[in-house]
Amino acid sequence: MIEPAKAAFEERAALLLAVRQAGVRDISVMRAIEAVPREAFAPYKFRDLANRNMALPLGCGQTMSRPADLGRRIEALRIGRGHRVLEVGTGSGYGTAILARLAREVVSLERYETLAIEAARRLAALPAANAAALHGDGLAPAPTLGQFDRIVVQAALDAPPAALLQLLSPGGALVYARRDFAEGEKRPRQRLIKVDRIEGGDLRENDLGPHSLGAAAFGVAKAL
Fold first, then answer.
1. For residue 153, which of 8, 22, 88, 178 is within the disulfide window of CB 3.0 to 4.6 Å?
2. What pLDDT does residue 215 have?
3. Of the ranges 4-8, 14-18, 96-100, which one carries the lowest mean pLDDT score?
């Protein structure tokens, strides 16, 4: 019989291997994923599955992304210790906690009030003092939030809204999953897209390959 502690260690090691096999190579990102306990953010009834590379159900019809997919999005941003990061779609707060280990400050906006409250509680317990989970529409953020060096949208969009792009500082980068509708196909394909604000304020896109995320929604809600 395998001891529980040994089993947990082996599951954690397998999870990190899966993240690496997905193409994540940045050591700082790998260390941040290793340092943040996913089980502390997973719903109680799914905690035994937290150290597996699989999506997990959350409240309000949302899901926790697979760690490998989350790692790809975060690595694409190339976050530095001095960066201010905006996250659109807090969910459980797991991604927020990983971002907090890489950046100077993280502001995360969640459209479902119940998820925002629960995520804020988990982040406080960790603790992640440089991260804030707020109830708000991340696709129509208030200009008063200020400028951000990095923005990650934890959802799929046809294109980032102008209100979000306006918060991206010069030299900044935004990552999201773009939905592309191919002729004759009922379901859209998704691609991981990085948008860089280059010199002069122009935007440049880079396609980082296939990806998968739930569709984004505008507005705010207390719960489903």
1. 88
2. 83
3. 4-8
Active site residue 65: yes
**Amino acid identity of 16?**
L
pTM more than 0.90? yes
Dig out the tokens for 176 from the structure: 């999201």
Chain centroid to CA 21? 19
Residue 1 has pLDDT above 60, yes or no: no
Marked catalytic residue, from 65, 92, 169, 212: 65
Please name which of 196, 204, 156 lies closest in space to residue 180, comparing C-alpha atoms.
156
Domain boundaries, the chain: 4-210
